[in-house]
Amino acid sequence: MSAPFTLRKIGVPPNSANLTEARRRVFDFFRAACRSLPTVMDIYNLQDVVAPSQLRFAISAQIRNNAHITDPKVIDLLLFKGMEELTDIVDHAKQRHHIIGQYVVGEGLVQNTGSKDQGKSDFLKNFYTSNYF
Amino acid sequence: MALRAAVLRHLRVPVQKLTVSGSNQSQIGFLASIRSFSSHDDHLSKQDVVDRVLDVVKSFPKVDPAKCHTNHLSFSRFLRLVDQFVVTTNPQVTPDVHFQKDLGLDSLDTVEIVMAIEEEFKLEIPDKEADKIDSCSLAIEYVFNHPMSS
Hints:
The complex is a heterodimer of chains A (133) and B (150).
Chain A: H1 19-35, H2 37-43, H3 52-65, H4 72-90, H5 96-104, H6 122-125
Helix pairs in contact in A: 1-3, 1-4
Chain B: H1 2-10, H2 22-33, H3 46-58, H4 75-85, H5 107-121, H6 127-132, H7 136-145
Helix pairs in contact in B: 3-5, 3-7
Subcellular location (chain B): Mitochondrion
InterPro entries (chain B): ACP (IPR003231), ACP-like_sf (IPR036736), PP-bd_ACP (IPR009081), Ppantetheine_attach_site (IPR006162)
Organism (chain B): Thlaspi arvense (Field penny-cress)
């Protein structure tokens, strides 16, 4: 598997001095993720399922979820987790249904969007996301 | 061998000087400009670059005149929202539009557009240059001046 873009471990050292540096790291991570998209689509055979622009949108949506955070250390930790996830995906440690369920079809697992669950309680809808609601 | 040489010595073949006439010269000049096997002559025309960059910007999901901003927006829901407004020709997206000021996008969207442009033209833009690309006109200029864009 020879990818034209090799995933350089941007490797987040645990200290961003200030918010601007953390911001720069976020953009670097986003660029690395976008550049590894052709490899991902190739590995998991997503050519007919989704377009790279949709995956880019999904990645940016996830980054935007945490856009309100101002503490550089928290941002570093989130970047570390994001980097870990990206490495797992590029190393083929995940499988196709993981990618489709998590990044292609809406938020969360495929189960939530089934029509038979629409009228059920909020408890079941939030069951997979967290314990506290 | 010797016989051949002897015979050839006695044969005179009239040799014509091939002068390149005027029409031939222009023809050869014209043919020389189409080097079909060379990859160095396929630079994009400016209009081509402008059209493709505008297509990339217009197909960005957040660019539409109605400007619906909601959080936790999934891609399919957003496309449905855009379809409701039937945006085929985006009146706001001109070749000199600024991503953040005119289209109301934020910095993450700017990076995403630059990545979409990278994908479209098969380039790899270094980070320092990518940070400077803030508007359509800068993007068009960069792509046009890049020797590897295709």
